[in-house]
Amino acid sequence: QVQLVESGGGLVQPGGSLRLSCAASGFTFSDYYMSWVLRTPEKGLQWVSDINRDGDDTFYVGFARGRFTISRDNAKNTLYLQMDNLNLEDTALYYCARIPYGKGFETRVGDHDLWGQGTQVTVSS
Asked: Which of 94, 102, 114, 117 has the most beta carbons within 10 angstroms of its beta carbon?
């Protein structure tokens, strides 16, 4: 079954950290660029970060740069998002999403062809 399953979300205090994971199955994970995308009721879907197939090139949205780290382990078919120094504005539902085969960093949110169910991150004191 082709799917993405996120985990690792939860409730954390401001300044805290979380590590999100996304387990991929049913396809050759190492063939695809991958993304993390968040969703909030106020702003809808917002791109967070992309990583290339080998994991040696990454991009981040401004608010994530310096605080979040995307990585992947192709041997384990798993994508990660290390989130540090979290603040209240990071509260969102976080999705991992697959960039279509042959596409790369130019892919826009909404053009991803496979999504997980999401994992909730809540930052609150």
From this structure: 94
CA atoms of 100 and 110, how far apart (whole Å):
11
Q: What is the DSSP letter of 51?
A: E
d(CA 113, CA 94): 16
Q: What is the DSSP letter of 107?
A: P
Strand segments, DSSP code E, in the chain are 3-7, 10-12, 18-25, 34-40, 44-51, 58-60, 68-73, 78-83, 92-98, 114-115, 119-123
Pick out the chain residues at pLDDT < 50.
none
